């Protein structure tokens, strides 16, 4: 019964010690999964090994996340997005410029101001407001790109944190790609859904004032006509 006693006291995988003595244990247990404290791995050793494996999984997941976000294609996509945003805003600016120039021309003509100093001054203002509009367009386009980049970095940071909590590498890479797509769609929807706003307020104010002055002059002429020239009101 000596062999039976060894099962309770010694190595359960090799109660007689014959495997260890023969060296066969290397083939029957190549990964060392049946190692015990008696064979050299303490509880602390097991804990340390498990922690090393956990850290390796974290590094792998975070590496896959960074690989997705650092793909050079993303920088090109953001540059294309900025360009598309700029083009859309320029369409709006050019339309406003055309409308403002037409309204200014008619307003000057109605007021008899074509060719004079007022004409020169107002056309200079028209050019100045267009140039300020160009600056606004560029700022808006670059700002949209910066917001998209910031959204990407927020997504990266969130996934990096999830990786430390057990997110595996495959899922991490999939969620990273999905995050990039979502960020792009949100940025595009916001940038393309907002109008540039009135870039020719000064010209608009000038045209409005000239129109109101013309209306007042017409009202005065009508009043004078009714007072002095409206003979039909008395019959005859």
Descriptive account of the structure:
By secondary structure, the chain is mainly α. The protein has a domain at 62-193. Helices cover 78% and strands 0% of the residues. The protein contains 8 helices and no strands. It is rod-shaped and about 120 Å long. The chain starts with a helix and ends in a 7-residue tail after the last helix. The relative contact order is 0.10. Residues 1-16, 18-28, 34-38 and 231-236 have low confidence and may be disordered.
Set out the fold topology.
Layout: H1 2-9, H2 18-22, H3 25-28, H4 43-69, H5 72-110, H6 117-164, H7 169-193, H8 201-229
Helix pairs in contact: 4-6, 4-7, 5-6, 5-7, 5-8, 6-7, 6-8
Distance between the terminal alpha carbons, to the nearest Å? 148 Å
Could you state the order of secondary-structure elements as H and E?
A: HHHHHHHH
User: How much helix is in the residues?
Assistant: over 70%
The biggest beta sheet, please? none
Strand content: under 5%
Query: How many strands?
Result: 0
Number of helices: 8
Average pLDDT:
82
Low-confidence spans: pLDDT under 50, at least 5 residues?
Answer: 1-16, 18-28, 34-38, 231-236
Overall morphology: rod-shaped
The radius of gyration is 40 Å
Strand pairing plus helix content: what structural class?
Answer: mainly alpha
Summarize the structure.
This protein has 236 residues and is an all-alpha fold. The protein contains 8 helices and no strands.
Which descriptors apply to this entry?
single chain, mainly alpha
């Amino acid at each position: 019964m000596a062999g039976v006693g060894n099962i309770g006291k010694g190595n359960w995988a090799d109660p007689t010690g014959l495997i260890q003595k023969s060296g066969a244990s290397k083939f029957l247990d190549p990964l060392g999964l049946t190692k015990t404290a008696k064979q050299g791995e303490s509880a602390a050793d097991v804990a340390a090994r498990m922690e090393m494996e956990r850290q390796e999984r974290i590094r792998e997941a975070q590496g896959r996340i960074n690989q997705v976000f650092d793909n050079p294609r993303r920088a090109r996509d953001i540059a294309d997005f900025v360009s598309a945003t700029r083009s859309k805003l320029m369409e709006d600016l050019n339309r406003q410029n055309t409308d403002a120039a037409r309204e200014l021309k008619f307003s000057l003509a109605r007021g008899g101001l074509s060719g004079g100093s007022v004409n020169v001054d107002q056309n200079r203002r028209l050019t100045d407001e267009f140039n300020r509009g160009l600056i606004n367009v560029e700022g808006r386009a670059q700002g949209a790109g910066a917001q998209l980049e910031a959204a990407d970095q927020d997504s990266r940071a969130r996934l990096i944190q999830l990786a430390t909590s057990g997110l595996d590498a495959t899922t991490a890479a999939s969620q990273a790609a999905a995050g990039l797509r979502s960020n792009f769609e949100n940025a595009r929807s916001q940038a393309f859904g907002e109008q540039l706003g009135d870039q020719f307020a000064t010209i608009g104010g000038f045209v409005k004032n000239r129109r109101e002055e013309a209306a007042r002059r017409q009202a005065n002429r009508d009043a004078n006509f009714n007072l002095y020239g409206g003979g039909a009101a008395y019959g005859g």
